[in-house]
Amino acid sequence: MASVDHAEGPDLRSRLQDWLPRLVLSPSIAAVMIFVYGFIVFTIYLSFTDSKMLPSYGLVGFDNYATLFGLSAWHTALVNLAIFASLYIVICMAIGLTLAIFLDQKIRGEGVLRPIYLYPMALSFIVTGTAWKWFLDPGIGLEHTMHLWGWESFKFGWIKDRDFAIYTLVLAAVWQSSGFVMAMFLAGLRGIDNEMLKAAQIDGASNWQLYRRIVIPLLRPAFMSAFVILAHLAIKSYDLVIALTGGGPGRATELPATFMYSYTFTRNQMGVGAASAVIMLMGVAAVMVPYIYAELREKS
Amino acid sequence: MAIATQDTAVRTGRITRTFIYVVLIFFALFYLLPFFIMVINSVKPLSEITSGNMLALPQDPTFAPWASAWSTAQIGVEATGLKPYFLNSILMVVPAVAISTALGALNGYILTKWRFRGDTILFGLMLFSCFIPFQIVLIPMARILGELGLSGSLPGLILVHVVYGIGFSTLYFRNYYAAFPTELVKSAMIDGAGFFRIFWRIMLPVSGPIAVVCIIWQFTNIWNDFLFGVSFAGLSAQPMTVALNNLVQSSTGVKEYNVHFAGAILAALPTLFVYIVAGRYFVRGLMAGSVKG
Amino acid sequence: MSFLDIDNVTKSYGNVEVLHRVDIDVQEGEFLVLVGPSGCGKSTLLNMIAGLENITGGNISINGRVVNDVHPSKRNIAMVFQSYALYPNMTVGQNMTFGMEMHGIPKPERDRKLADVAKLLQIENLLDRKPGQLSGGQRQRVAMGRALVRDPDVFLFDEPLSNLDAKLRVDMRTEIKKLHQKLGTTIVYVTHDQIEALTLSTRIAVMNKGYVQQLGTAKEVYDDPANMFVASFMGSPSMNLIPAKIVEDNGALAAEITDASGRPVRLRLSRDGAGVRAHLERRVILGIRPEAITDAEGADRRASNLQVLGNDVAVTEPAGSDTFVTMTLSGKDCIARMRADAEARAGAHFDFTVNMDKAVLFDPETEERIDR
């Protein structure tokens, strides 16, 4: 092997090619590291300081969290979120699953129905809120119309009622998102091997049993995805509240997202606001982190 | 929306089928009704709304509310109509979508075809960033925009949307490229194509479907954003959603419902347009597993 | 001086070594087949030759040049992939000339080479089509064409036929062999299909668990396997591996096994070298190819040591040209390959003729040959 030339190291181009991918990726990574994780750290830090109108760096330990959980407004926001999130998730899934199963029965006009179910997700929550606010207004919307039609005793004043206003948020949010959930379930249904369904029918399963015992269990991944997406949307809900009820009547529809905003930017309690944002982040993380972890593990 | 219809094995009787159709049509009306009401009431004079039935068709159709919403309605302190804010939204959305999509394509390409140690963790971090409640970044973001001299400006908003859009665009492209055979990239390497040439000549030409999905998603999200707009945009840079909210919530004077509706429809038109034109590709792309994340 | 020299090459991922000291010299014009079950390291080795994976230890040189750190495109190799890896957005012609374009070869020359190769492979009429419009066999041809136009030092094939249906696979196999004979190119070919390995190769490297188990011609690997892995992996149905004991029988060495009813049977061995003698009265594994067990009429006339073995027939499987007969020996299923019209009947007794010239012996512990 006298002629073998050992001197040659990696040529310049190869070395550049080795580093180029990481180089190109680095701005995005840097942006995410600073603007997401750096900011999260900063906000967590602020939540332990005496920041009021502007950030201030006097550490006060868990004072802000103590204050936060002592506030009745925060309690209201948490209770509202619990009501809103659970109803929103359950109803969206119920409607989404029903529509998906029904649409999957070789429905004539599926091509027309599907976009109708889906279009609300293209709208801004501000637009949705504007439309529903008016529709639900007893003086001019549905109640008024029913009265004009002669149904004088008809009452539908939830949006003005402290005890019921939160359900109008659920209604509008379900209107906006349930079609999207339908699409996720429909995709799941269409992914199920048809021969398996035929086999189950030959085994003597009725339609009901077929769906309850075979199809719905197979939709587990779709349920997971839908749950994760709806849960994080619920925690982040802000625009809809602003547009539909403005958090009212009184504080009846305050959610953590609106609480954080008003405490930070209008009440000049930045420390408390930061603490509430941290609690929100923990809520989202509790849902998302296991999900992302499982997804990435599965793929690699 | 071409989700392949399959030959469903389930058989249903006539009564069941009727019931199914009734339910499906009921929900179609449920989804259509609010928008339908907005449309018909946006072309009624105000008197007809306050005195009449919201479901009644306009007796005296007028486009005055639309004209007012577009160019003369009172938004905040000025009677400019929504026009300047519509323009703001366009100027904000187009660059933000373009930049975040381009970065997402490159990131997805790297994370699937040029894998390196730790790439999955990096992707996990990017993925989680899609779902954070943005309240957690509002305070430091406001400060950084100030330090960069971008406070209240459109470039500032564009930066914000690009930064928080990268996660989703990377997610879409990564999942799409993951299904793209890596052997093609190896083959191109042996053929002598480098990093960018492979991206440009091999990957991009087949990226149409996912690019459509990503663009629609980013466009819808950024156009519909309210939180960042209301937090970071100065008066002159406010996007459409914020202006619409100002219009609707303004407490002075008579509530001009017809103008509010016209404004709401104006704010919804671009996303609806995109959805109607390209929605089928969006659903198809979404169905291809890209949302499973 | 070998043309492609794989010199003491190892590959590790982290602390896990997946390829252990692989040493193969390939001469110019040779057709080397790397064969083994999935995960044996054959594709990893091929990718290392191509430059698609880094080399952890050792050297790979092509045409006298160490290529360890040379970019794949500069190694003067071409590769045909399992999925064919045709660029879906380009026509067949563009696919085939992309590599030349990347290397800055002027258009007239590209067109001339394209025309030559297209003619050679009879795909002239496909040049303007997109890969999506081609059948599996056509794609395969285009993938080979793309490699041929490069006129490389070494062709690398990564399971190129495994996506084709059975009939087409046989046709393309013949075609690749013809092409190799005609062009005299140097080829490294990876497959998990032992038939492909036997039919195509000038030499075979049988791999398992990151080791080259045996390197040799098809005949060497088939008739004279180095160990039990090679013996059972090469050949279909695979070699019968029967537990036996070496005994002395009338002054000669014999392998003692039991028949279906448990009675001991002795088969005199043709080879009784020191290795075998060392195992006297010890357990061994007797390896016999199915075609070495026949009826009396079907036995190899030139064999020097034919032994008769009476046994009960368990199952017969007529397969057209042959009939496979299953019986029990030493408690294991054992297959004989008979003429189509051999008269073995299931359940009946039959006198088998065993060609002991072809028998081999293994140590049951080390699984290595003891009679070489």
TrEMBL record, chain A:
It is found in: Cell membrane. This is Sugar ABC transporter permease. Belongs to the binding-protein-dependent transport system permease family. The keyword Kinase does not apply. Keywords: Cell membrane, Membrane, Plasmid, Transmembrane, Transmembrane helix, Transport. The chain crosses the membrane at residues 23-48, 77-104, 116-136, 164-189, 210-235, 270-294. Residues 78-293 form the ABC transmembrane type-1 domain. InterPro entries: ABC_transporter_permease, MetI-like, MetI-like_sf. The keyword NADP does not apply. It is a multi-pass membrane protein.
From TrEMBL, chain B:
Coiled coil: none annotated. Its main location: membrane. Pfam families: BPD_transp_1 (PF00528). Residues 86-278 form the ABC transmembrane type-1 domain. It is a multi-pass membrane protein. SUPFAM superfamilies: MetI-like (SSF161098). Keywords: Membrane, Plasmid, Transmembrane, Transmembrane helix, Transport. PROSITE patterns: ABC_TM1. The chain crosses the membrane at residues 19-40, 85-109, 121-142, 154-177, 198-220, 226-247, 259-283. It is found in: Cell membrane. PANTHER family: ABC TRANSPORTER PERMEASE PROTEIN (PTHR43879), GLUCOSE IMPORT SYSTEM PERMEASE PROTEIN GLCU (PTHR43879:SF1). Belongs to the binding-protein-dependent transport system permease family. This is Carbohydrate ABC transporter permease. It comes from Paracoccus albicereus. The lineage of its organism: Bacteria, Pseudomonadati, Pseudomonadota, Alphaproteobacteria, Rhodobacterales.
Automatic annotation (TrEMBL), chain C:
SUPFAM superfamilies: MOP-like, P-loop containing nucleoside triphosphate hydrolases. It comes from the Bacteria. Residues 4-234 form the ABC transporter domain. CDD domains: ABC_MalK_N. GO terms for molecular function: ATP binding. Gene3D superfamilies: 2.40.50.100, Nucleic acid-binding proteins, P-loop containing nucleotide triphosphate hydrolases. Keywords: ATP-binding, Nucleotide-binding, Plasmid, Transport. SMART domains: AAA (SM00382). Belongs to the ABC transporter superfamily. NCBIfam families: PRK11650.1. PANTHER family: ABC TRANSPORTER ATP-BINDING PROTEIN, MALTODEXTRIN IMPORT ATP-BINDING PROTEIN MSMX. This is Sn-glycerol-3-phosphate ABC transporter ATP-binding protein UgpC. The gene is ugpC.
